[in-house]
Request: fold
Amino acid sequence: MTKKQYSKVVLAYSGGLDTSVILVWLKEQYDCEVVTFTADIGQGEELEPARAKAKELGVKEIHIEDLKEEFVRDFVFPMFRANTLYEGEYLLGTSIARPLIAKHLVEIAAKTGADAIAHGATGKGNDQVRFELGAYALNPEIKVIAPWRLWDLTSREKLLVYAGKNKIPIEAKRSGGSPYSMDANLLHISYEGGPLEDPWLEPEENMWRWTLSPEKAPDQAEIIELTFAQGNAVAINGTKMPNALLLATLNEVGGKHGIGRTDLVENRYVGMKSRGCYETPGGTILLKAHRAMESITLDREVAHLKDDLMPRYASLIYNGYWWSPEREAMQTLIDKTQTRVNGIVRLKLYKGNVTVTGRKSETDSLFDKTIATFEDDAGSYNQKDAEGFIKLNALRLRIQNRKK
Reply:
């Protein structure tokens, strides 16, 4: 490996131990200039310390960007228009953030004339796949450096020794600090590793950061109304909000009522099973409300077609194929179905549960009370027609049974 293989590298930088070590390691290995990129996607951390640390480590070009609105508008909400769940449970909070970060890494590389991008994802996880598939889709010629697949710094202890030798400022790990690997953004917070590596072990209550336990949630239910326009939530209780603020508000109200906790074992794309716990209060509310809105505004076959496509769409996002032509084609179809998804959903939030208590659409409802009623329908539906309908649909079953 020649030291001048790369002259400038854009690093996805958090300011933590791993990426601070990577920053110095890149300079040492490649004798290159490092540009840092830090994305604010609602992780709830102060980002200026990352800028200060990058400066201390000699970085001249530091990019810190507020991407919260773009994240929700262009990534989270398109995903929710599809009612997306991976393996029936996971709301894809980490997965959906990675294509956004990859997009900006590639853009900054182009602006700064960098030769490569670098990330701190390990060689065991999904994120390396998501970052790199996204980067290659957006710039087929981009070069990617993944230090965890190259170096021998394979433990926290080795990272700390390297940091000490190279005078990298590292905050001492707080006594009683979290034993988990965590990832947070405006959609969720995740917990992996540590005690959770035993899938039989129940998570400790003090692990959860965003939600009250349902047992400690208020004894009084809270009623909210979500307004939808073309499949997107646009207002809470009649108050219109920007996308990021709306999701943040739902996180707050959902967390207060113990909504959105998930404990699951998922199948990683690289082949292993992994146990993770997630808090997604706002997303849990949104998913329930969106399906309720679709229930009165979507044609039956269109709704069923969406449900058929959703597991594949979810896998594309989980596995890192957000920028693939098949995901974009599916998104076009999904978005076409959403033009009629307009109206208001009423929900009850109570001790970890989200219950739909009403839905209405003044312009696009397909619910016809005159047909659905159990009372006198004044001839709008002829019940005698059902006999022929049933016999025609039973024809193949009767033929098959006669053969038996």
The longest helix spans residues 300-319. The two ends are 71 Å apart (CA to CA). The first strand starts at residue 8 and ends at 12.
